[in-house]
Amino acid sequence: MSKHRVSRRQFLNYTLTGVGGFMAAGMLMPMVRFAVDPVLKASAGGDFIATPQKVADITNEPTRVDFTFEQQDAWYTSEVTNTAWVYKDENGEIVALSPICKHLGCVVDWNKDKTNPDHFFCPCHNGLYTKDGTNVPGTPPIAPLDVYPFEERDGYLYLGKAKPRGGA
Ligand code: FES
Fold it and tell me: Boundaries of each Rieske domain copy (predicted)?
């Protein structure tokens, strides 16, 4: 018989300690994740992301610009593609609008509704926005399209995280 025989009491102690530790880890992990998440998000979303759009080529006509970036979410990295509608306004200022409809989140298109030319149109419930992203009263959207902050680097357009117009 071995000298290191585990008594019933010790066995129960080890088992309960192990199970308790496992359960505690299960409860603590979401809390740690919650505390650390803003830091992770800041590194993923706080930076400006390169687009393939040359600033010199931006015209007065809204153009769809797709841009892809790697998003780090805790231990998981995924490739995300976002879209912006980009143009220069009458003052030559760049405008970069989110395509996400402020009604229920469908994707808007430029100049696709022949009865309302030169508007952003949401096909899901016939939502309309003027060229500057303002929602047209009487159509379902309840707010203007979000706006991307932007920078020019080496002649290319870089976009930040889209925010509600006038939002911080
Ligand atoms: S989701 Fe765009 S109008 Fe409803």
Answer: 86-159
Quick one: tokens of 39? 């830091």
CATH tag, 49-159: 2.102.10.10
> Is pLDDT at 38 greater than 70 in this prediction?
no
Cα 108 to ligand 1 centroid, rounded to whole Å: 8
Ligand 1 binding residues, C-beta < 6 A: 101, 103-104, 106, 122, 124-125, 127, 140-141
Q: What is the distance in A from the centroid of ligand 1 to the CA of 105?
A: 6
The pTM for the full model equals 0.72
